[in-house]
Amino acid sequence: MELTQRFADLAKEIAEISDPLERSKRAHKVVTDLQEVTTELLRARREGVEELIALGMKQTEIGRHLDISRQMVGKLIKASPPPERAFLGTSKITIAVGEKREAAKDHGPAGPAVATEDLAAFDILSGLARELKLEASYETVASPGLIDLNRDNLVVICGPRLSPMIGQILASDQHIKFDRDESGWYLQDQVTGIAYRSPMDTGERADYAYLGRLPRPDGRGTFVYLAGIHAVGATGVTHWLAHNLSDLYREVGRRRFSTLIRCTYTTDPLQITSSERVTPLYRRGAAA
């Protein structure tokens, strides 16, 4: 009742604004915010109901606790956003993509550029977000790789070679790390000791990539992070997420974790033909 009264007071306050433009803007902002909160509450309610059913509670009993019919319990499950929506975020998400500097070419000067593969990764991920009733915005991580990581609902696609800041946070992962030697960059499973080198480097159309949830520098949350040894690896991760997000969320929720994904692909046009997880889901305990 207290929350309802606060909303009622806010509605009254907005209704009394004399300037019609300001009244419309304030009302629109509150309605938009409430819609985002309502969508997340519908998701959380569905998740709770599905957990209760998995524990053996009957829909009739759940309905009695929620003061709705058994039939309505079934309807709210179908009509509400899926639980795994929370993996990406609870409202509009930002997908930040690494930007590199290209050397000057015959028909133009040197300048910043985003890899075609990273743009494909953005397209797949933003499409998945829309399916989950989430908006997605795009931004680039410009040289020298500075980015505000202390934000909610953030996904970063940027290798450590483009962002030392990302490299420093990746160093906190005791299970998997990016490393390099005279042969180039590779991914190291520090638990098994296996080094995963990109098959691309020997002419095969395949790559490995890191997927995880990393801690924010301010210690007040996490962000989703993915990056391949080569750019196509990130596209492979988004392909894997599009096919496995529900199972992944059941395993890790919004807790910190890391794993490696292997993908294969074709070119002209770029298309991921397969993606699979090749290491365990290494959990790290802390939630978002």
Any low-confidence stretches, pLDDT <50, length ≥5? Answer: none
Domains (count)? 2
CATH topology of the largest domain: Chitobiase, domain 2
Q: Structural class, from secondary structure content? A: alpha+beta
Which bin fits the share of residues in helices?
A: 40-55%
| CATH homologous superfamily placement of the largest domain | Chitobiase/beta-hexosaminidase domain 2-like
Q: What share of the residues does DSSP label as strand, in percent?
A: 25-35%
Number of helices: 8
Order of helices and strands: HHHHHEEEHEEHEEEEEHEEE
Rounded to an integer in angstroms, the radius of gyration calculated over CA atoms is 22 Å
Largest sheet geometry: 8 strands, mixed
Could you name the CATH class of the largest domain?
A: Alpha Beta
Mean pLDDT: 91
Structure report:
With about 290 residues, the chain is an alpha+beta fold. It has 2 domains: about 1-80, no CATH class; about 90-285, Chitobiase/beta-hexosaminidase domain 2-like (Chitobiase, domain 2). The chain contains 8 helices and 13 strands. Strands 1, 4, 5, 9, 10, 11, 12 and 13 form an 8-stranded mixed β-sheet that branches. The two termini are about 30 Å apart. About 30% of the residues are buried. This is Sigma-70 family RNA polymerase sigma factor.
